[in-house]
Write a structure and sequence with these properties.
The structure holds 2 protein chains of 2 kinds.
Chain A (H helix, E strand, L loop, with lengths): L2 H16 L7 E9 L11 E4 L3 E10 L2 E8 L2 E7 L2 E4 L1
Chain B lengths: L2 H32 L18 H4 L2 E2 L7 E5 L5 H11 L1 E6 L6 E6 L5 H9 L4 E6 L2 E2 L47 H4 L5 E11 L23 E3 L3 E3 L5 E2 L13 H10 L14 E8 L6 E3 H16 L4 E6 L1 E2 L5 H12 L3 E5 L22 E7 L18 E4 L3 E5 L3 E5 L2 H18 L5 H9 L2 E3 L11 E3 L1 H4 L2
Parallel strand pairs in B: 7-11, 7-13, 10-11, 13-15, 15-16, 16-17
Antiparallel strand pairs in B: 1-6, 2-4, 2-5, 3-4, 8-9, 18-19, 20-21
Classes of the chains: A alpha+beta, B alpha/beta.
Chain lengths: 88, 476
């Protein structure tokens, strides 16, 4: 998965969660180093390799709220959405 | 004195004269032999090109070989490199396939290598440059230190060893000379043993990697296949895959392969790197998937496998666990305690959140079980890595964990950072100790590791020992 594909996946996920048109979602993306292989966004019951992992921090905003997704070539995760992390 | 007594006394006198003459010659030979051994002050002990001629055998510039190794920044094109070569009147002697971005460069003007390095280092296209040293010494050299103890050094022939600062920090790439685990001293005592098995509980291991293959564990033909009460029989020829509950632990991520190389990439084989152990047996266990994450349940399943194999007669004494989370699991804690009861050390990553584990625990490294050794990460300047967790009560020890070069999928090598990388360094030292002291109990082994550190200022008040693991001390 490349950066564009990861952003697309995140955008579609947020559109579904918020029930909005993906075109109405604003984005900003930056390269980032995450603390582990769950990108610092591990789900409950999940263990991850403790290796610094290069990926992308994707900030999406819609309806006046901002949400953070984290992605690398293997995965996309939603970080602390209503207090929980999700692997999507 | 009768005639017989005279003959006996004469014979005795001749024997005594011959013995004395021989002893005198022996002393002379000994003196001559000693004059060929260089006695080097402690401050010259470190591994570098600036030591005496004898030590310099370890790292000598060769003739007809490339003089400098240059790593170009990612994105620098082939055409740009060729243009630079033309401008410098140099040529690329070799591209190092398994170390992306590295070029071995021959200076056609035969200029001083240090000057050539300086020229390349100043170029915006270059990440770093260094002299190309040939590491050719494989025998031991005795070096007298200030405390008059003998500290031999032993260097492997592995071509990328010069990049393994964790094992021998000569100040390469701006590091601090001597900020390493003192592996070259340890290797003069032991380079490991095929009798010691280390379980790498991770994303599996690429057991076909050329630098790992000879050191991989395989189930002895005389031993029955693994049989789990719930899963039934598993043909665990190469280890165990707890995700699919099957036999194949092939790594699809690279993380487990990296950790395995740190513990036991084959040494002295003229390939790639050297592990902390040149000889060891690595048991690959897979519970994390291609993304590098897995479930607590599968981790437990894999630890259970290790315990069962130990009971079946496999000499698996160490589990290396470069993973974790902040969620506590009583089931995971219980199985680690079970491993303790079976004399198995559990070395675990302290975590990468830059937080204090005394206040916000990280598991499994924070379990209060006697076989757990929690490991923080140091950089090449003996500083606690910016990402590393710490905890004077809950993090036992520190080891190198930044820019660590090790094996990767597809016969490659990559540099990675994390307490994931520091953990197998300590697991590797534990295996070295066990190769020398096979009967050492898990309690004794843990105690030995924690007593074998060099005090580091940056770790004061940060870890239980306040020190960096020293492999040579652990073998004393």
């Amino acid at each position: 998965m490349n950066k564009e594909e990861a952003v697309e996946k995140a955008r579609n996920d947020l559109a579904q969660r918020l029930k909005v048109d993906p075109a109405d979602i604003k984005e900003s993306v930056e390269d980032a180093d995450f603390p582990d292989m769950a990108l610092g966004a591990g789900e409950s019951g999940e263990m991850s390799g403790q290796m610094i992992t290069r990926g992308w921090r994707i900030r999406l905003s819609a309806g006046g709220q901002s949400h953070e997704y984290r992605a690398d070539k293997n995965q996309v995760r939603l970080f602390k959405y209503k207090g929980k992390n999700y692997r999507i | 004195m009768n005639r017989n007594n005279f003959v006996i006394h004469l014979a005795l006198a001749i024997v005594l004269i011959l013995v004395a003459a021989f002893a005198g010659q022996l002393a002379k030979w000994r003196k001559q032999w000693k004059s060929h051994i260089s006695i080097v002050p402690a401050e010259q002990k470190k591994r570098g090109a600036s030591t005496t001629e004898e030590i310099a055998l370890a790292e000598t510039r060769g003739f007809g070989r490339p003089e400098v190794l240059v790593k170009f920044k990612s994105g620098v094109s082939r055409e740009t490199i060729d243009e630079l070569m033309w401008r410098m009147n140099d040529r690329v002697e070799d591209r190092i396939e398994n170390a992306p971005g590295w070029e071995a460069i021959d200076d056609l003007d035969n200029a001083d290598a240090a000057a050539t390095v300086a020229q390349y280092s100043s170029m915006p296209e270059v990440e770093y440059a260094e002299e190309n040293y040939e590491i050719s010494l494989s025998q031991t050299i005795e070096v007298r230190t200030a405390v008059t103890t003998y500290q031999p050094l032993r260097f492997p022939k592995d071509p990328l060893f010069g990049e393994q600062w964790a094992l021998a920090n000569s100040g390469q790439r701006g590091g601090k000379e001597g900020a390493d685990i003192n592996a070259t001293n340890a290797w003069a005592i032991t380079t490991g043993s095929e009798e010691v098995v280390v379980a790498v509980l991770d994303s599996g291991v690429d057991y076909n990697h050329d630098d790992l293959k000879p050191n991989m564990w395989t189930r002895p033909k005389s031993m029955d296949a693994y049989e789990d009460e719930d899963l039934g029989p598993v043909d665990d020829e190469y280890g165990f895959n707890a995700i699919l509950n099957e036999s194949d632990p092939m790594d699809e991520n690279g993380h487990g392969t990296h950790c395995a190389g740190i513990i036991g990439a084959e040494g002295e084989n003229n390939i790639g790197i050297a592990g902390v152990n040149w000889k060891v047996r690595i048991m690959p266990l897979k519970f994390m998937n291609a993304g590098g994450y897995g479930t607590t349940k599968d981790a437990i399943e894999a630890i259970n496998y290790v315990i069962e194999r130990k009971k079946a007669g496999v000499n698996v004494r160490v589990i290396s666990a470069s993973w974790g989370s902040t969620q506590r699991s009583r089931a995971l804690e219980a199985i680690i305690r079970k491993a303790y009861e079976n004399d198995i050390l559990f070395v675990a990553a302290a975590g990468n959140a830059s937080t204090n584990n005394d206040r916000r625990p990280h598991f499994p490294s924070s379990y209060n079980v006697p076989n757990v050794v929690s490991v923080a990460a140091l950089d090449r300047n003996d500083q606690l890595a910016a990402f590393s967790n710490f905890g004077v009560k809950s993090v036992a020890i520190a080891a190198p964990g930044v820019d660590i070069l090790s094996t990767w999928l597809g016969n490659a090598y990559e540099e990675k950072s994390g307490t994931s990388m520091a953990t197998p360094v300590v697991s590797g030292v534990a295996a070295l100790v066990l190769s020398e002291h096979p009967r050492m109990s898990v309690d004794e082994l843990r105690k030995k590791l924690l007593a074998s550190t060099d005090p580091i200022v940056a770790l004061k008040g940060k870890t239980e020992t306040g020190g960096r693991i020293n492999a040579a001390k652990a073998l004393e």
